Amino acid sequence: xxxxxxxxxxxxxxxxxxxxxxxxxxxxxxxxxxxxxxxxxxxxxxxxxxxxxxxxxxxxxxxxxxxxxxxxxxxxxxxxxxxxxxxxxxxxxxxxxxxxxxxxxxxxxxxxxxxxxxxxxxxxxxxxxxxxxxxxxxxxxxxxxxxxxxxxxxxxxxxxxxxxxxxxxxxxxxxxxxxxxxxx
Length: 184
Known about the structure:
- The chain is mainly alpha-helical.
- 46% of the residues lie in helices and 4% in strands.
- It is built from eight helices and two strands, in the order βααβαααααα.
- It has helices spanning 7-10, 17-22, 42-52, 60-75, 81-98, 122-132, 147-159, 168-172, and strands at residues 2-5, 30-33.
- The chain has a two-stranded parallel ribbon.
- Helix 4 packs across helix 5.
- The two termini are 42 Å apart.
């Protein structure tokens, strides 16, 4: 079984390296995950379906004739009532055709984000201050600050101080009371 997350990015276009590699993978089941189930280009949609089950929508030429062109015509702002009706029928037919291949998730599940502010623990605060006050061993002066590198260290520190163990050698190059193993 093969899972491909973010399938809309790498598999919708037949020319991408990801697409070329994916089609060489032999598997009884391929599951594509995407947060963008309805791409603007119907051929991208065709390519995603084709990667999972090549027999569902026929050839690219058949798909264009049966679905892409009528849907494009019917969605045009100058479309006739007949074109719009036909487009709606094509959309329903397409949805019915792929129902066993595509799992359309509804918007029933509303995502809720919660942000909690949590104070640093005493050991975290000590490590934070020690890191800011560290010295360069070569000059004895205060160590230079590097915004992104420091952000990375502080992110580890607030997430969980033990994450800093892997950074210990880099941080240990600088004098200070930056003890990691004895914080808990």
